[in-house]
Structure formats: C-alpha cells, structure tokens
Amino acid sequence: MVTVTKLLWLIAAIASATRTHGFSNTQRGPLIRSKTHPSVRFLSERDDVNSNSPPLERIVTKITANPKQSINFSLLMTLCGAALGPFLDSYHSLFGVLTYNTPLVFPLLGSGTGPDLLTCVTSLWVPPLFGLAGFIIGWLYILLDTVTSDATQSQLHPTIPKVLVGISYFTFQYWLSGILYSHGVDRTSILAIMSVLAAGGFYLLDGTISGLITSAATAIGGPLIEVGLISSLTDSWAYHYNDPGETGFFPLWIVPVYFLGGPANGNLARGFWDALSEKSDARTFGMQVEIDQVPCSVCNGTRAVKCPNCDDGTYVTYGERVVCKACRGKGRVICRECFSKYDDDPSDIDNIRRIMDQIPD
314: which strand partners? Predict the structure, then answer.
C-alpha cells in the first residue's frame, strides 16, 4: 500500500496547489467573521445557483456558470481516477480474485526480480475506465448536491483530512477483500464484512441523499459494466473472476466494494470543486480571510441597516400599527453601500431575503 499512500499525498498536494484556500479546515457556518475586523461578516455561498430555480436549470447553471472550473474539475477527477484505479485493481489481481488473459505487469519497487518486489498487475484499459468512473461519480455528486437540500455545510465542503481518510478507507476495503479471498474466506462472509464496511464508511464519510443515490448507482452500474466487459472483450483483452460467484460473473461481495467508491470519489469531487471556485479566495467556505481592511462605514460590516420605512419593524397607518413589508418586520434591510463587495445579485430578492434571514438579530 506504499504506492497508494504516495498517491494520496499527491492528491492532497494537487488539491492544495489548485487554490490556496480552496478546502475548508474548519466547519462552515452561514456567517463568517473576517480576521481583520470582528464585525465584518459575509454569507458563505457555494455558488450563484438560485435554490428556487427548477432542478434542471440549476444543473445547467452549475455546469455552465464557470466553464474553466468545470473543465478543470473534469480533468482532475479523471486523472485521479486513472491514477489510483490500476493500484486498486492490482490488489484483486495479486490476490487471485481475478485474472487477465494478457496482464500488464510492471514493478513499483525494485528492478523486477526478488521475492519482495512490489508489482502492479492490471490491463491497459483499466486506467481510462477508472478515469471515466471518477469523472461520472464526481459530477453526479456535484450536480445532485445542487438539487438536494439535506446536506450540512460540513458535508458539502469536506476538509482535506476527510477527503484523504475517505480514499484511504476505500483503498483498505479493496485490499481487505483481496486478502480475505486469498485466505479462503467464504464469499458469504466476505459479503457481510464488505457490506458493514461500506455502510459504516458511508455513514461516517458522507450520509447525504446525493451520496446515497450516487453510491447506489455505482454499486449497480459498476457490476453491470463488468458483465458487459467479461462477456464482450476479445481474448487478448479479456479477464475473469476466479470465483464467478452467485452471478456466474463475479461474487456478490464486489457490490459493496463498488458502493464505497461513492463517498471516496464524492468527497474528493466536493473538495476539488471548492478549490476551483473563483470565489474561494474571497469566500473560503468556512476559513477566515480578509474581505476588506476597513468595514463598511454605513453598516460597520454587519450587512444590515435600519429600515427607512418603519420604526422597529412596524409603522402606523390609518390609526393601525402594521408590519412593515419592506423589512418583513425585522426593522432592518440589507445595506446597499457595501452590496457589491459580496458579489451578490441586487435583483435576486430571494437571495437577499436569505441573507437577511441568516444575519443574527
């Protein structure tokens, strides 16, 4: 597992280098204070997608709002999948879970001789296939996060350690499945162990609706793709499971292994998306940064000012005291003096109301 560990550190380095403050190291809340002034606050928004828009419109906006971000995200997810995939696949090859008719074997440590040599056994088509899987799973997470509303801020914006733990845990499950098989553990026991690991991993590392949907799709789609590959690949590219299991193609314990690939890729995807965000320098999703050295002279950085149309949320008209519609009884409205600093849309009334609802009274 030495090479996999090195790859994890490489992924962490890429994530950090992509944008210095892209990943959060603290749990996000709706309002963050600037480190330069105790009263400066701003709303931590994931992006400019209007939560009241139809789901399809939100998905299209997510993809097209920043083409550079979408392209770079796609490349990173594909490259990470293609890089890590062959080493995961090699566990099953080395432990006898599956066999390639024409394996690609290359040394990871040493010159190719010696009993302690660490090798990788895979096939040429494995890296692009895992790369495609990383691309698809990553985008499913990002797009489903856009149309679901159950996730907390800490789930949507994982820290670097959480991302690396997820990948490491998935790698461990992959490795353990091979170890158990090679030691003659029966397939029913392996299925039970892998299922417990998958369920526990999902609960601890994800727990979102978007993650459940994506992981379930991976657990179903992955094995179905394998059925197609085993059935259609030519002899020189073909492979087979040494225990065809309950399905005649593979043992069922491979299903929960696929399932856990969801949270591992999903948190990596969420982290990369944050890191590539154009706003991650100004809105670091939970990290304290400088927005402005001097808070707004009108609202003192609170983003709210006294409503000019009422007295403390109400006013008297025709002898009756009524609730002010302009401020919805709050007695305060959003400050227009510093509105542009937060890159908010002045015509998006729903977003303005959401900001005001999250500003403490």
Answer: 311, 323
Q: Looking up tokens 């403390």, which residue turns up?
A: 312
In order of 89, 153, 190, 233, the CA distances from 156 in angstroms are: 29, 5, 32, 39
- Residue 299 in 3-state DSSP? coil
Smallest CA-to-CA distance from 223 within 268, 201, 191 is with 191
User: Can you read off the two tokens belonging to residue 143?
Assistant: 């797009």
Residue 63 CA to residue 157 CA, distance in Å, equals 18
Nearest to 90 by CA among 57, 60, 130: 130
DSSP state of 36: T
Q: Is the dihedral of CA 107, 111, 112, 116 positive or negative?
A: negative
Structure tokens at 235: 């002899």
Closest CA to 292 of 120, 20, 110, 35: 35
Contact 241, 187 (CB under 8 A): no
Query: Roughly what angle, to the nearest 10 degrees, separates helices 126-147 and 67-94?
Result: 130
Residue 150 identity (one-letter amino acid): D
Kindly state the tokens that stand for 115.
């009993």
Mean pLDDT (10-residue bins), the chain, 361 residues: 52 54 40 37 44 79 89 96 92 93 79 58 93 96 91 88 95 96 96 97 95 97 96 94 95 97 96 78 40 67 87 87 87 82 72 78 67
Amino acid at position 122, single letter = T
Under a CB-based contact definition with an 8 Å cutoff, are residues 324 and 315 in contact?
A: yes
Helix spans in the chain (H): 2-18, 55-64, 67-94, 126-147, 153-156, 160-182, 187-205, 209-232, 254-276, 349-358
Helix axes 254-276, 187-205, angle to 10 degrees: 20
- Contacts of residue 139, Cβ cutoff 8 Å, sequence gap at least 6: 74, 77, 269
Write a three-state SS string for 38-105: EEEEEECCCCCCCCCCCHHHHHHHHHHCCHHHHHHHHHHHHHHHHHHHHHHHHHHHHCCCEEECCCEE
